[in-house]
């Protein structure tokens, strides 16, 4: 019997048995109160009179009525930039020890998001909550003895003045608890390798000596890593070298579009568990197998607000109109898209994280990510969110029995008329006009706004199929290979012109 595994599972089961029934609405009220109290004497807290908000009859309403929405550019220009000039107590007490560097999927320059000690504690606490929830997935006792392979960005952080910088996955991995280090793979030495290809090569070389039970990371990069291990050891599937691989935790993007190509690398079925770890914090994770929705972490240093995802509230650059209303967890409804707003223990206030979500279970505060505000395709009234685009890709995979591992598109003007121009990453030889027809037909049936647009300003659909490697080469050319990097699903016309030039040069 796996004695250590039994012990760990027993501790988790005992901890779970002691947990009280959650009340996400009340948890959120407490979190907001704690955030305001802690930051009331910062520059930001004094400027917006947190003391007055704390005396409000309804703190949540007082908070939303007093403080404007901030996207990264707005809060960085006015507040966070002061931190780089050596100022302390700006939006949160003290100075952050880390900055999470994130270029996102649309920005041309890197964002530098404060990561405080309190945020690191919050991320660790959320990780423990997720591990505790694994008992719900009926995993065997010996699973809790296996290695956990976390493939993120390099843990070799850059020292800048009085802080360090790197991607959030690298910062988190460099701060793992001491008790976890025996399970953590690829280990500190390999994790520090900055070159992604060299790091994956080293993983492939060491793979045979590891007994991996779980893997965590962005689906597209995990796929490439698994392919490299399979190729290096001349295997048919990854389970020939890691037979105990049972859990994959995805993060930050919907797993659906990758499901077919990912499963092709496996020898048996596994548990796929979604997580939502962003540069701004650990937001949610899937806590039970009955659903693929994720549970918002409502008691852990992040206060959530929800703006109805309506075209009149979204500006062209993906930011929010000042007239956009915000709702509390108590006010949301099922199956409606909302723009996610967060306030955190890292000094982000009413911050537009850029994602849209919908609620699947309000009592449990369970959500699904439905897209990005900047990837909302509405150039000619088509009103397509990323989840609808993902559904279209899944439909093509089923209809033609093919694998499409990546895609991007643009509402492009050609001869003064608009077309939705798609690039699909697939190795299959399928007629592009046929793909376009089927995709167009599906989106018409799935979205009435798209159907109306196709009868008016949207002239048609064009599809080009390319080698999936081109997408990875594009990210590499833009210094975005590996880590938390996600391919931009919707491009503006200027960026799309650069993309098409790149594709033509790679062909």
Automatic annotation (TrEMBL):
GO terms for molecular function: acid-amino acid ligase activity. It holds the Pfam family GH3. Residues 398-491 form the GH3 C-terminal domain. Residues 297-362 form the GH3 middle domain. One of its GO terms (cellular component) is cytoplasm. PANTHER family: GH3 DOMAIN-CONTAINING PROTEIN (PTHR31901). This is GH3 auxin-responsive promoter. It comes from Urechidicola croceus.
